[in-house]
Amino acid sequence: MAAEEFNFLLATDSYKITHYKQYPPNVSNIYSYFECRRKKGSQFSEVVFFGLQYLLKKYLIGQVVTEEKIQEAKLFYQMHFKQDVFDEESWRKILEKYDGRLPIRIKAIPEGRIIPRGNVLFTVENTDPDFYWLTNYIETMLVQMWYPITVATISREFKKILAKHLKATSGSLEGLDLKLHDFGYRGVSSQESAALGGAAHLVNFCSTDTVAGLLMAQRYYSCPMAGFSIPAAEHSTIISWGRSREKEAFERLLEQFSSGPVSVVSDSYDIFNACKNIWGDKLKERVMERSQDSCLVIRPDSGDPAETLIEVIKILEECFGCSLNSMGYKVLPSYLRIIQGDGIDLSSVDEILQKLTDEGWSAENVLFGCGSALLQKLNRDTLNCAFKCSYVESNGKGMDVYKQPVTDPSKGSKRGRLSLRRNSDGFLETIERGAGKPDEDLLVTVFENGSLVRDYSLEEIRKNARLRDEEVNPTLHNHEQELLHNHIINGIH
């Protein structure tokens, strides 16, 4: 839907337009919050907060209510419900009183911050008592935050794994930001998914082929160019030469891209033959002429990822030799690297890197590409994202509210007005029932009455999301790891 066609009044679950008739009489304020619930046994204990600014800029700032949109919504909901339940009068009041801007306040943690699950991430409330129902009307759109949060979180988990192995086998984190390449553009559900997911990955890395994510970072997060790529072959550009001319196909790529890195998929027929007899024999001199700045990146793309990569690197060692780095691990010549982009997820990356380590190889030798496991194999329950009402005011009196299902205690919700603070032990915790101190609250007003109050750049967000020392230091003491784990999982403060 083009921006000029977007109708905010239609951007919600349809049943929500009936809620203004359901709240208690004389309600003047509804206050709700968003969190990633803590879930015992979950793979992820903390989350990266990202994407709210895009939703605000794209859909909520400025005039979002017009007479034309009111009439469109009125007709639509009349047809949909087959009865008159649309609150035309209230929407027209917003148009007349606020020039169609939303009387809503949203407070949120700064984008890029790393937050243990079970803590408030943002809060929403109406700023005009006549429009108390607006708070939860916009839930549908705001809960879609689950997607960029989840992608940014998974991407950062990849970064933690890569950092751990890179530091342990090379002694440094040089090149870490380029170690995971986003291959996910074609594997997501829409252009907007590609933009949101692609940008979420760029919170942690600078390597991508997902143009939509780069454009989003440029347009909504003030980053002229957030990620980079290199010329790369696909199977069509190799097999179009015919099986008997695979060597000529490879040679063509070396010639056409002689001054920078180039990636060549090499498993169209036989990856092991390609590495041994074409790259390592017929084209060996051409490969050795290249430099670190114009390295050849060989891409296997089938078979068991770990087994195939180990076999490939052994063949390349036989053909081109290797050296030992300062940590005593083997490294291929600087003009030669491998990228594994097939079958990559959090589990397989850790397995591959551990097997390389066991075989004496540094993580410097390999890069990874990831598609669906990064941008698509996830849903709202991956991080148990939820938006719940926790406070209401009626007849001038406030009341803390909550849900507490007897059948599932994990779905219990928070109570009252919330704040997020860092306690005396250094851990983040949510304060309920309005008991928090304003000067300690880490939640920042980002949107109020139709205007963006705080604008984050991707540079700021990346700083917020940087890895902690204990996440990259392989010598971290076990008791320190256990303390951090217990705090995040069990809420020990």
UniProtKB/TrEMBL annotation:
Enzyme Commission number, as recorded: 2.4.2.12
Domain Nicotinate/nicotinamide phosphoribosyltransferase residues, every copy: 179-422
Record's subcellular location: Nucleus; Cytoplasm; Secreted
Primary residence: nucleus
Swiss-Prot/TrEMBL keywords: Biological rhythms, Cytokine, Cytoplasm, Glycosyltransferase, Nucleus, Pyridine nucleotide biosynthesis, Secreted, Transferase
Keyword Transferase applies: yes
GO BP terms, alphabetized: circadian regulation of gene expression; NAD+ biosynthetic process
Catalytic activity: beta-nicotinamide D-ribonucleotide + diphosphate = 5-phospho-alpha-D-ribose 1-diphosphate + nicotinamide + H(+)
Pathway(s) this gene product operates in, as recorded in its UniProt entry: Cofactor biosynthesis; NAD(+) biosynthesis; nicotinamide D-ribonucleotide from 5-phospho-alpha-D-ribose 1-diphosphate and nicotinamide: step 1/1
Gene Ontology molecular-function annotations: cytokine activity; nicotinamide phosphoribosyltransferase activity
Boundaries of every Nicotinamide phosphoribosyltransferase N-terminal domain copy: 7-106
GO CC terms: cytoplasm; extracellular space; nucleus
Subunit text: Homodimer.
PANTHER family to which the protein is assigned, alphabetical: NICOTINAMIDE PHOSPHORIBOSYLTRANSFERASE (PTHR43816:SF2)
Family as reported in the entry's similarity comment: Belongs to the NAPRTase family.
Protein name according to UniProt: Nicotinamide phosphoribosyltransferase
Taxonomic placement: Eukaryota, Metazoa, Chordata, Craniata, Vertebrata
